[in-house]
Structures
1.
Amino acid sequence: MDVSLLESALHDRGEPAYRAQQVWEWTARGAAGYDAMTNLPRALREALEADVPFSTLAVETQGESRDGTVKTLFRTADGHPVEAVLMRYRDGRRSLCLSSQSGCPLTCTFCATGQMAFGRNLTAWEIVDQALHFRRIEPVDHAVFMGMGEPMLNLDEVLAAARRLPALGITHRRTTISTVGWLPGLKRFVSDVDEPIRLALSIHAADDELRSQIMPVNVRYPLREVLAECRRHYAITNRRVFVEYVMLNGVNDSPEQGRALAELLGPKGFKVNLIPYNPTGMYDGSSRTRIAAFKAQLDRAHVPATVRLTRGRDIEAACGQLAAAPKERQRTVASAR
Ligand code: SAH
């Protein structure tokens, strides 16, 4: 729901100022539509129905994984594809994986989103509407900006969206923004954001040479500068930065590379998430034993580390698999030939 459009529509009709808040509260609590907002006059509900689309996104397809993960493909009003995921955990947690852009202009070699065409930045409302869609299915309590796109390339809209999430039941402490280390946005995030929103860094390699090979963005913003910002974040907030490391067989997963990562990060300020690689074509995933041996190096150096649970792989809803429609991907593949 575009709340600024809502506000101007209400203003134009001469409605009292509290109306926008009333409508927003119903929406944030999962109301199915204007019709459910029973403390609004019927005529007003009908007028809103006609003038302010209840969502800025249309649902195109939705799939549910054997493990309960739900992936939804949306379209923006101007036709751009956007995917988002609801993850359901046994302990009752309900976590949303939200997209900040349609596609992504960066070209990380292991990520399916980087292989599709980049569309555009999403507005705050297009981001909030992903979350609202799932809130209408069931209560939710966590959100990660780990869907399509690079949040630090669209920081203002991402922050505006994140600031709306507490109304849906997702506090800032349970909201995480993930970045490849896009320095201009990261610096602003560290300097300016007062809310206790969590920060995650997709690192994937402990040396610049390998990282530049698998994540071209590293040529522009090398590790040393990116890590300095992460340390500054920790110094200011005392909140650890999550470090994501996707395990690529024979590429970045040797015990020596584990030791190098431990040395680079040190025992303070970071928590490492080892991510089993979800197939997107380019690589093979590391075996469980290789992941365990890598993790042992971090353990030895007292760098906190966990292996991430893979969710939704059977419906291509897992990390790095969001690529909108197969159609889109085919088109990219065809044009690359
Ligand atoms: N652009 C931001 C936000 C997206 S997060 C970022 O990269 O941080 C998406 C996460 O999934 C990142 O940690 C990314 O590295 C990881 N990922 C990408 N492709 C993957 C794959 N094929 N298997 C597992 N994880 C992957």
2.
Amino acid sequence: MNSRDSEFVTGLLIDNGYTLAPSIDKADVVIFNSCAVRKHAEDKLFSHIADLKPLKAKKKGLIIVLMGCVAQNYKDEAVKRLPIIDIVCGPGDEAKLPRIIADVARHREHIIAIEDVDKKRPEITPEYRSGELKALVSIGEGCNNFCTYCIVPYARGRERYRDPKDIVREVRGLARRGFKEILLLGQNVNSYGRGTGSDGQLAVNFAGLLEEINEIDGIKRIRFMTSHPKDASEELFKAMCDLDKVCEHLHLPLQSGSDRILKAMNRGYDRNKYMKDIELYKRYLPLGAITTDVIVGFPGETEKDFKETLRVMKDVGFDNAFTFKYSPRPPAASSELEDDVTMEVKDRRLQELMKLQARISIMKNERFKGKIVDVLVESIGTKADDTVIGRTRTNKMVVFGGGAKLIGSLVNVEIEDAKSNILAGRMVG
Ligand code: SAH
Ligand code: SF4
């Protein structure tokens, strides 16, 4: 979502006469987009901004902007911490950045633009996109779930969704420009259409939206993330099975395999419901990929809770898992609890999870050996001159020979080798 926001703001500035600078030291404006989900990223962010102190001292007119969720959380505190920051702009105000930057350039005063985070973004879609094949399309913003560890509902506000007509119009425009793949983005795509505030209920739900986008000529692949297990439904799995462009990949964050911890996280499902969803998904899409997010070291997580997570990981057999060490994120509710799992234990649990997952990923990928898969060629490879890299519908990376002329096309590749994070093969047509 942050990548899309960065692209959106870049596009807005280009539409207002700016151009992309070849490097930071040549730039008149430097914008940091920020994620507040984990503490580690936040610390790195402030150290990256601080690295600009010498440049700012040399180049007085340089404008430094902090946007995104850290901006929303820190507000004017960010400037107190690092006075070289000129503008602090929350997600609700990003559409105003061209005007704010122009104001600062004129008056040289700090501006803190943090309005109501629940506001719906204006329907502006600048032309600029960072790629040519795959496009990110936001279907809405915010989250109503209040998982106790998570800062998103505070930094991004309540759920609000874009009108299906606007989304379809945007995707049609992308198709006309030659984009082949669309990734629909939302914190909880399955609740799409659940209208909020004065917007009321939208006429279509997420499965209905997929159906509409599936009709758009030129688009070959549709992906989406993230699905919340609480709202995952048979209707979605059926749509994934029936709609030819919707790729067979479900990202379904588990977070923990322990019912006790899931409850403390306020996730709204238990292990049983999660496993039932997986079973149903596998029934509709037997060869479909499943990926997940897992947190280790949530307050009170015992060795027994952790073993339960390992158990679910083995039972499901995820294709890939994004694993995180818990960090308290005030004002999220769990930040009130004692962060009582030591860093040493978090590290060990994370290593164990990652080791298990690497084994499972290889096993899952080996199933592809000897099979012919449909690959969208995305870029040139790094090893031999004519290697290219693409992705399967299940979102697995594949490397094979063929040359740069293939970029943008869909080809069949026979898989000959499988590692935990990449497949290799040869083109068969
Ligand atoms: N809306 C998505 C993801 C949001 S954040 C969802 O509900 O799944 C992405 C991932 O970051 C989460 O799935 C979670 O695994 C992780 N995460 C969120 N808050 C965290 C925290 N305080 N500490 C560690 N990991 C966290
Ligand atoms: Fe955060 Fe939970 Fe919302 Fe995902 S569903 S953004 S983890 S509160």
